[in-house]
């Protein structure tokens, strides 16, 4: 029997990779994790989910102080923006969390191999100057920003999501290319801090993949907040002159071109899998047309002993999906049964209000058969009203015959937290009646979920 340096080598220390490494070590395996970045945690902790939430949270406070929300509640303040300090608290959050993973690696005896990994063969990987072998190898290399052809990101005037988090001053006019989650979150931050923000989206609506009602309502709310939208619009070029940019746009279905002047341009049209430099061919692997590594239900690739998870495989590019797959793949490698229900991966947009969904949209559910829908406005929820948060709704889509819940969509300040209850209920096969007859604490935003469930059966109380 061949002697390996490690039982498991995980390539990449993002949410999928570091979780897979720790779980494999907990199960008694000798584990190493290869990571080229100076800190652990991947895109999510370093330049993605975590720092963006730090800026979103801080900008909410500033906006509440600057635009009268606090004054309405009897708190009179005149805020002064200290952007440097706002960036400092963002960096502090990142430092604490990435350092926490390093501590967890040491605690669980996971060896961090510092350097970029490249396959030599199916069991051998070059990491920096070192060559190691492993019985099982997990590819968890994540994703990076999809470039827009012909548009150069200089991280000064034209930025991607990483550069958008680090702008040294509030832009006079920020043009965001892409009306998806990242574009809307970043646009919200800078709009609250005083920038004029214009979002350009190729499709006719923002938030592709979300429920139709949610997309319409969200657009209305963002417009109310002062964000401008150009939907059904194509960007044909971006030119930089000095510290300004000119963005050339035209209608997606054809028409006259025009130019929009901007101080900064954010390219946020999506992400693509990181496979460059892995030398997958040496291991006997190839990627599909979308650049992803194909896997089976257990996260195994077509090569024995090589597994893949997270953004580098098909499915939504979400940190929590990668984490669940990290746990599952480690358990599969250790001979246990690791499963992820890919039909129930919640999505959240961390704007204000938050937007969250799980399961099927109403449009997708209707394609499969007859449905019943319950919808409850947050304006009818006592806690939301008390908190001056009347915007949004909860929507539940159930199978017309079985009453089984097929999808839940929420717009409200704490939608990201509320969606967990919906996801868990659906994981257990809940009907709308199950949710309707579950006691919810009063006064909470979550009562709107109960009322929407009652609405599926035509009997909400508070509307």
TrEMBL record:
Residues annotated as binding FAD are 53, 141-143, 311, 317-320
All copies of the FAD/NAD(P)-binding domain together span 6-326
The Pyridine nucleotide-disulphide oxidoreductase dimerisation domain extends over 345-453
**Swiss-Prot/TrEMBL GO biological process terms:** 2-oxoglutarate metabolic process
Q: Quote the InterPro entries the UniProt record gives.
A: Class-I_Pyr_Nuc-Dis_Oxidored, FAD/NAD-bd_sf, FAD/NAD-binding_dom, FAD/NAD-linked_Rdtase_dimer_sf, Lipoamide_DH, Pyr_nuc-diS_OxRdtase, Pyr_nucl-diS_OxRdtase_dimer, Pyr_OxRdtase_I_AS
Q: Does the keyword Heme apply?
A: no
> Source organism's superkingdom?
Bacteria
Give the record's GO CC terms: cytoplasm
GO MF entry, a single one: dihydrolipoyl dehydrogenase (NADH) activity
* EC number from the UniProt entry: 1.8.1.4
Q: What are the cysteine partners in each disulfide bond?
A: 44-49
Catalysed transformations (reactions): N(6)-[(R)-dihydrolipoyl]-L-lysyl-[protein] + NAD(+) = N(6)-[(R)-lipoyl]-L-lysyl-[protein] + NADH + H(+)
Sorted UniProt keywords:
Disulfide bond, FAD, Flavoprotein, NAD, Nucleotide-binding, Oxidoreductase, Redox-active center
Tell me what else is known.
The active site is a redox-active disulfide bond.
User: Which protein are we looking at?
Assistant: Dihydrolipoyl dehydrogenase
The organism encoding this protein is Sphingomonas baiyangensis
Q: What is the lineage of its organism?
A: Bacteria, Pseudomonadati, Pseudomonadota, Alphaproteobacteria, Sphingomonadales
């Amino acid at each position: 029997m061949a002697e390996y340096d490690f039982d498991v080598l995980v390539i990449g220390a993002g949410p999928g990779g570091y979780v897979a490494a720790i779980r494999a070590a907990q199960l008694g395996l000798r584990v190493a994790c290869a990571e080229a970045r100076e800190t652990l945690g991947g895109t999510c902790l370093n330049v993605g989910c975590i720092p963006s939430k730090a800026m979103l949270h801080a900008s909410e406070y500033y906006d509440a102080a600057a635009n009268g929300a606090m004054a309405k509640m009897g708190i009179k303040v005149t805020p002064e923006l200290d952007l440097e300090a706002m960036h400092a608290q963002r960096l502090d959050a990142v430092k604490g969390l990435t350092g926490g993973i390093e501590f967890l690696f040491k605690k669980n005896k996971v060896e961090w191999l510092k350097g970029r990994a490249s396959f030599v063969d199916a069991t051998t990987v070059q990491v920096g100057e070192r060559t190691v072998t492993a019985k099982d190898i997990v590819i968890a290399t994540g994703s990076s920003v999809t470039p827009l052809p012909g548009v150069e990101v200089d991280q000064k005037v034209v930025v991607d999501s990483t550069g958008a988090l680090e702008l040294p001053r509030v832009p006079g006019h920020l043009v965001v290319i892409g009306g998806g989650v990242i574009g809307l979150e970043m646009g919200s931050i800078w709009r609250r801090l005083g920038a004029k923000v214009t979002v350009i989206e190729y499709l006719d609506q923002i938030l592709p993949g979300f429920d139709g009602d949610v997309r319409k309502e969200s657009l209305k709310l963002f417009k109310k907040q002062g964000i401008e939208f150009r939907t059904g619009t194509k960007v044909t070029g971006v030119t930089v002159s000095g510290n300004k940019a000119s963005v050339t746009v035209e209608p997606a279905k054809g028409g006259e071109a025009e130019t929009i002047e901007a101080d900064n341009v954010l390219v946020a049209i999506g992400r693509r899998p990181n496979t460059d430099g892995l030398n997958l061919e040496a291991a006997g692997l190839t990627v599909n047309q979308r650049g992803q590594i194909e896997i089976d239900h257990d996260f195994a690739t077509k090569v024995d002993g090589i597994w893949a998870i997270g953004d580098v495989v098909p499915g939504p590019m979400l940190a929590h999906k990668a984490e669940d797959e990290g746990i599952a793949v480690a358990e599969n490698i250790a001979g246990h049964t690791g499963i992820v229900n890919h039909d129930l991966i919640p999505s959240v947009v961390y704007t204000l209000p938050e937007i969250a969904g799980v399961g099927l949209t109403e449009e997708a559910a209707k394609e499969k058969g007859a449905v019943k829908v319950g919808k409850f406005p947050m304006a009818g929820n006592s806690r939301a009203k008390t908190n001056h948060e009347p915007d949004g709704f909860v929507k539940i889509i159930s199978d017309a015959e079985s009453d089984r819940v097929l999808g839940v969509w929420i717009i409200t300040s704490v939608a990201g937290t509320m969606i967990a209850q919906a996801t868990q209920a659906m994981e257990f096969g809940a009907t709308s009646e199950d949710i309707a007859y579950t006691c919810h604490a009063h006064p909470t935003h979550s009562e709107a979920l109960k009322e929407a469930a009652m609405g599926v059966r035509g009997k909400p109380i508070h509307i």
